[in-house]
Structures are given as C-alpha cells and as structure tokens.
C-alpha cells in the first residue's frame, strides 16, 4: 500500500536522518547508497514495493546529478570525454535495459516484486564483497569486438537491475569498468556516473507512464528532505573514507544487505 501524504509528510526529521545515514554508508564505499535506502523505504517508512522503487529512483537521480560536479576536481570532464567510447558501449545496452526493467517492475505483482528485490539485494551484497574492492591496473580482460559485445550485454543487465531496484547501478558498473575495460577506481567511479545518469532518466521516463508514479507528488516533501539528507550523508561519508578499513566495512555492509533481503522477502 502506498504511503499517504499524511503519514510521511510530517516525517521530515526521520526522512533526513534516514537519508543522511544511508548517504554516509554510500559515501564510505563510493556509491549513492540506494541499495541500502530501498529496504529502509519498505521496512521503516512503509512504502509498497513499486512505490519504494520509484521514490528510490528519484532520490538516486538527485544524488547522481549532485555527485557529478563534486567529482570534477578529482576526475575532470575532459578525462571522461576521452573515454566516451566506453560510456557509449555500456549505454548501448543499459538504456534499453532500463526501459525493460521499469516495464517489468510495473507489471509484476507486489508480492513477486518484493521477492525479486530481495534476490537482487543478495546479488548486490555478493558483488559488494567480491567486486567493489577491485583495483584497476589498466589491463582489460577482453579487447576488440568481444569487449564491445560483452559491454552491451553487461550494460543491458545493469540497466535492468538499476530500474528494478531504483538504484544508479554503480555497485555493478564500477566492477564492470575495472575488469572489462581496465579503468582505475577513480576513473571508474566517474564513468559510472556518466553511464548512470542517462540510464536512470530512461527508467524514470518509463515509470512516469505508470499511475504509481503519483507517489512522488503525494510525498514530495518526504522525497526532498530525504534527498537532502542523502547528499549531506554522502559528503560526510566521503570525508570519513579511510577511517574504517575496507576489509571490515565491505563485509559488514554486505551483512546489512543480506539481513535487509530477508526482511524484504518476508514483507507483505
């Protein structure tokens, strides 16, 4: 059941604190935190499955847009443009995948969507531990036509997952950019944002055609306050980077995702 404006609109403090906490986690690991925000929207704030995905997508979009200029000091726009072929390669699949994923989400029954989201949280937890700690050494695992085809397929899969969960997809894009294209971690983070933004806009456009999209209008104050908290938390998390060792942080966050997956699976 969608959250009514009467229920969520007054929850400004809770929305800000929740957004800031999730944003801090995201900042610590270099992501927007949407994979942690989704269970919070469902479990704590009581959004239905599709409503939570749409709200999560809206806030993920805001975080990505704000993160792009923040990173320009580390990775200039010119550097990103120098790697436009990589971005185009992934976008060739991710844009179509985003549309397909959003279409599936609007057609799935709520109970089925809860289970799909739970399964994807488990996948994200595994990728977080096995893939996100990778360091790019400039050596791509594939080259030529094989790399291009794999890039399109990977982009499509990432686009589907990103739309189904309402996330930016960085948790999957960053390992892909490092392993498939040999990008270093900093460059991968910025290229990930460059791929995520148009991919998310396509998914957002598809969701806007569904009546459930009205959840944003009904809970506009909640969305804005939580988005502000998410951005503030991302800033804090980025400055705390290095305080907690990755060897401890990543497994701990993966455990949080697994616990969230169980709760989302059982949600009615």
What labels describe this entry?
268 residues, mainly alpha, globular, 13 helices, 78% helix, disordered N terminus, 0% strand
Characterize the structure shown.
This protein is mainly alpha-helical and 268 residues long. The chain has one domain (9-266). It has 13 helices and no strands. α2 (12-29) packs parallel to α12. The protein is globular and about 45 Å long. The relative contact order is 0.23. Mean pLDDT is 83; it is low at 1-10.
Write the layout of secondary structure elements.
Blueprint: H1 5-8, H2 12-29, H3 34-43, H4 49-70, H5 77-82, H6 84-107, H7 110-130, H8 144-165, H9 170-181, H10 185-207, H11 215-218, H12 220-240, H13 246-266
Helix pairs in contact: 2-3, 2-12, 3-4, 3-13, 4-10, 4-12, 6-8, 6-10, 7-13, 8-9, 9-10
Topology, number of strands: 0
The end-to-end distance, rounded to whole angstroms, is 10 Å
| Percentage beta strand | under 5%
Computed Rg: 17 Å
Roughly what is the average pLDDT, rounded to an integer? 83
Low-confidence stretches: 1-10
Class computed from helices, strands and strand pairing:
mainly alpha
SSE pattern, N- to C-terminal: HHHHHHHHHHHHH
- Helix share, percent: over 70%
Query: Which of globular, elongated, flat, extended, rod-shaped describes the shape?
Result: globular
Number of helices: 13
Count up the domains: 1
Largest sheet: none
